[in-house]
Amino acid sequence: MNLIFFGAPGVGKGTQAALLAERLKVPHISTGAIFRAAIDSGRILGLQVKKYMDDGLLVPDELTTQVALEALAEPECAPGFILDGYPRNLAQAESLDKALQEKRRKIDKVVHLVVDEEELIDRMLNRGRPDDTEEVIRRRLGVYQRETAPVLDYYVDHGIVTVIDGLGTIPEVHERICTSIGHGLD
Ligand code: AMP
Questions:
Q1: In a 10 Å sphere around its CB, with 0-12 CB exposed, 13-18 middle and 19+ buried, how is residue 87 labelled?
Q2: Are 61 and 89 in contact (CB under 8 A)?
Q3: Which residue from 9, 63, 75, 124 lies 20 to 30 Å from 136 (Cα-Cα)?
């Protein structure tokens, strides 16, 4: 199953995507995590993306799409994958579709996690990432509303979005996701 985890920053996409990936035994591809690892290991990619991440802005599409498509081309992704944090604007969504179509593949479902804004800010302030200062968080939420939220309509038009209430414990939300994609716990 080829899945996208979608939602505002702080909604729990990373946590839930990792849990589901373990359960389905498919790779969890987070462009944000790939960028953070590149920064930590001092790779050129890290230098190229750091200023955007520090400012809460999107890394340019060309770089981000290259990183995402390279990850998807790995043989481990053949049985399925979970994308987390990509695509984040319409251009990325279109690049992804085109690349998948060329390989006769497609996105099966978009899991849209939803919690209200105050809860998002609380969660981000508590996770302690270097780009989780209040100012940068507010900027990331603005970028999400302007650039990323419209991507949802694109997938709604394709009829593949499932909306999940992201409020609750991690196992509760995990169970909701599993049920909605047809992998309910017995
Ligand atoms: P995340 O871990 O998904 O919250 O991403 C952290 C940061 O990485 C974002 O604030 C962006 O600066 C950058 N980033 C991650 N994914 C993307 C993407 N698909 N497009 C552009 N920038 C991204």
A1: buried
A2: yes
A3: 63
Rounded Cα distance, 56 and 136, in Å: 5
Strand segments, DSSP code E, in the chain are 2-6, 28-30, 81-84, 109-114, 161-165
Residues 6+ apart with CB under 8 A from 182: none
Q: Is the pTM of this model over 0.85?
A: yes
Q: Which of 34, 36, 59 to mutate to test the pocket of ligand 1 (most atoms within 8 A of CB)?
A: 59
Q: Can you tell me which atom of ligand 1 is nearest the CA of 86?
A: 19
Over residues 30-86, the pLDDT tens digits come to 999 999 999 999 999 999 999 999 999 999 999 999 999 999 999 999 999 999 999
List the one residue out of 42, 39, 45, 40 whose CA is nearest residue 64.
Answer: 45
Amino acid at 179: T
Distance CA 111, CA 87 (A): 13
Candidate from 11, 31, 144 with most ligand 1 atoms within 8 A of CB, to mutate: 31
CA distance to 41, 62, 63, 119, 164, per residue, from 112 (Å): 32, 25, 25, 16, 6
Task: State the DSSP code for 3.
Answer: E
Cβ of residue 90 lying under 6 Å from some atom of ligand 1 = no
